[in-house]
Amino acid sequence: MGYGYSKKVIELFRHPKNIGEIKNADGTGKVGNPVCGDVMVMYLSIGKNKKGEEIIKDAKVKTFGCIAAISTSSVLTEMIKGKTIKQAQRITKNELVKKLGGLPVQKIHCSVLAVDALDKAIKDYYKKGGKHGQKG
Question: Which residues pair with 87 in a beta bridge?
Fold first, then answer.
């Protein structure tokens, strides 16, 4: 199962983190790549930190895809937990790839999927009314 994948990528593929969905998620983002067939749905739960800033309390993901898609979505959920929404939005595909110890060139597009799913989930949160705690 080599293909130039790092040990970290293989480990996350075999034992992915934060797999599943969050019921009544504050934000949900679904993305897909029609070329390779990968589909990813990210779920966010938003809370507030001690400073009153909106943070990502929890993140889960459902990924139907290759080793790279599963690994990038898993590591991204780990990277964003506890971060403010603004900090999470600044994470780039290059940071994801670096955190994984690299990806084969032909699989870099999978890291974009994870970042796009996060972006859509955050946009969904704001579309639903944003500001955590203002729900009925």
Answer: none
**Model pLDDT for residues 27-64, shown as the tens digit of each residue:** 999 999 877 788 999 999 999 999 999 999 999 999 99
Catalytic-residue membership of 110: yes
The residue annotated as part of the active site, out of 59, 75, 110, 122, is 110
Domain that holds residue 52: 7-127
| Catalytic residue (choose from 10, 19, 36, 66) | 36
Identify the CATH number of the domain in which residue 19 sits.
3.90.1010.10
pTM for this entry: 0.89
Q: How many domains, the chain?
A: 1
Q: Which residues contact 32 (CB under 8 A, 6 or more apart)?
A: 38, 39, 40, 113
36 in catalytic set: yes
Inside any domain, residue 135: no
